[in-house]
Structure of Ketoreductase domain-containing protein:
Amino acid sequence: MTTKALITGASSGIGEVYADRLARRGQDLVLVARSTAKLEALAARLRVETGVSVEILPADLGKAEDLARVEARLRSDEAIDTLINNAGIAGEGPFADADPAFLTGLINLNIVAVTRLAAAIAPRLAANGAGTIINLTSVTALMPDGFTVVYPASKAFVLAFTEALQVELGAKGVRVQAVLPGITRTAIWEEEQLSGIPDEMVMEVDEMVDAALAGLDQGERITIPSLPDTADFDTYLAARMALRPNLSHRHAADRYRR
């Protein structure tokens, strides 16, 4: 049976490049995004250029009924063995001025949709002992004081969620990867925003996705495309692990006692 990859946020940017790269690897695709017209154009191009089967599934994952349709497809389509959770939004601005409705939409897309789509496919992948889940998070998950408030928090959830999934599903033969892009030239950034950022800090989307896929091929569980030396991140993980023996004790630390 030919396998398929389902990619969310596939109509542009990171999702579009993932679709292109996987199609060129011979992977059949199911593309999910809000814009039917953009999906149709991308699907038509990829069919001509690569010969793979490309199906579109227009959906706004911030809407419960659309999310449910995509979940149902992940549960029922035995050929889908790869999920790329890419759809997401940012741009909430200062928290004190934030629109609560926008924040709710951000959380629904960046957290709820990612969780529920992974939950829809995970039982089948675990039962098969194979498959791949790729969750796009962000380097802001590691530096919540360096951006806005809610977006980094949502991406920190995705990172922690992915690490936990790696423990549970990895033991069953499922590959689970977290990808942490830095600033990437996509529609999530407006040109005037990028114009104020040094060029050496902005990665082109093609290079970012190619690096992420190389990391997947190399067996990385967490891929940070911009990071020159993975030993730096290993040091961070080791320091975090060193805290664990002292994070839960019967009594409070001496400094809190009077």
Remarks:
- The chain has one domain: 4-232.
- The domain at 4-232 is CATH 3.40.50.720 (Rossmann fold).
- The radius of gyration is 19 Å.
